[in-house]
C-alpha cells in the first residue's frame, strides 16, 4: 500500500505541474522541465502504483506468490528516494543528480522486475494477464536500459540524443512496459469486478503478438532508420493492435452480469477513448502532418493522463476500498454486520473528481492542439482539482493500510 499512497501523492504533484508549466508545454517536448513532469507521472505515479497493485494482484489473479515481500518493502524506499531526486534533478538541469538518482531508479526498477520474474515460477493460472505482464516486464528491462544510458549520457555527454532515439525510449516505456501491463490487468480486473464470464481469449493472445511485433519494429526503425517508411508501417501496426484491444474490451464488457455502469467503468471508457485518440495523434505525427511540437505533447498527454491515467484511477477505486475492507473487517465478517466494499468509497467525491479530471483532460489536449497556453493552464487547474478530490477520497482508506496487519492481505480466498 505504501507504493499506492506514494503514487497518489505523485499524481497530485504531476497535476500541479500541468498548469504551472503550460507555457513550456505548448512550445516543445524537448525541455528539462517537461522531462521532469513526464518522469513524475511515469516513475512516480503510474509505475509506483502498478508496482503496488501487482504485488497484491499476483496471488489473486495468477495464483502466484511474490518472491520476497521483505525485499519489496525495502525496495520501496530505494525507489522512492530515486524518484524524489531524479525528477527535481531533471527540472533543475542538475546533471550529477540525473546520473546519480537515475542510477538508483534503474536499480529499484530492476529489482522489482527481477522479483516479479522470479515469482513466475509459482504461477498456476496462465490467464492472458500473465502473458501480458510478462511481456511488459521484459520491455521494462529494455526501457531502463535505455534510460540508464541516457541518464549517464546527460552527465558524461557521450553522444547527442536525437528525437528518434528519445521516441524509442518513450515508446518502450509507454507502449511496452505500461500499456502491456495495463492491458493484461484490464482483462482480469474488468472480468472480475463486472462478473463477466466466458470471454474468449484467443483475440487477446493473438493481439499480444501483434502489439509486440509492432512495438519491436517501431523501436528498431526509430533507432536505425528514423526517416524510413518502416516507422510509419510499424506505427500503423501498433495502432491496429490498439483498436483491436479496445474492441476486445467492448466484447468483454458486453458479457458483464453487473449491468449498471459504475464510476470506475466510466474512467475505463475514458481511458479506452484516450488510447484511440493517442493512436490518431501518433499517426498524424509520424506521417508528418502535425503542425507543431505541441502536438507531440498532446500525444503524450492523451497516452499518459488519458489512457494510462484514467485506467489507473478507475481501477484504484476498486482495489483500495477492497484492501481497506480486508484490513478492517475480514476478521469480524460473519460475526457481526459489516459494510460492503462499495460502501467504503465516497461515490460523490469519485464522480466530482471524474468530472474535473475529464474536463481537464480534454481542455489541456485542446490547448495543446491550438498552441494556447492560457487554455492549457485553465484546463490544468480543473485537472489538478480532480486529482486533489481523488486523493481526498482514497487517502483516508489507504493510509491506515500502511500499518501491516498479518492475515489481511489480498488472497484468492479473500476475493472468493
- The counted number of beta strands is 0
Low-confidence runs: 405-416
In the CATH hierarchy, the third-tier topology is known as Cytochrome C Oxidase, Chain A
The major pleated sheet works out as: none
**What is the N-to-C succession of helices and strands?**
HHHHHHHHHHHHHH
Write the layout of secondary structure elements.
Layout: H1 2-20, H2 22-25, H3 32-62, H4 69-92, H5 95-119, H6 128-156, H7 163-194, H8 202-224, H9 229-254, H10 263-286, H11 294-329, H12 347-370, H13 373-398, H14 412-415
Helix pairs in contact: 1-3, 1-13, 3-4, 3-7, 3-11, 4-5, 5-6, 6-7, 6-8, 7-8, 7-9, 7-11, 8-9, 9-10, 10-11, 10-12, 11-12, 11-13, 12-13
Task: Explain what the structure shows.
By secondary structure, the protein is mostly helical. It has a single domain (2-411), classed as Cytochrome c oxidase-like, subunit I domain (Cytochrome C Oxidase, Chain A, Up-down Bundle). Helices cover 79% and strands 0% of the residues. The protein contains 14 helices and no strands. The protein has helices spanning 2-20, 22-25, 32-62, 69-92, 95-119, 128-156, 163-194, 202-224, 229-254, 263-286, 294-329, 347-370, 373-398, 412-415. Helix 3 runs parallel beside helix 7 (163-194), helix 5 (95-119) runs antiparallel to helix 6 (128-156) and helix 9 (229-254) packs antiparallel against helix 10 (263-286). The longest helix is centred in the C-terminal third of the chain and has 36 residues, at 294-329. It is globular. The two termini are 21 Å apart. 49% of the residues are buried.
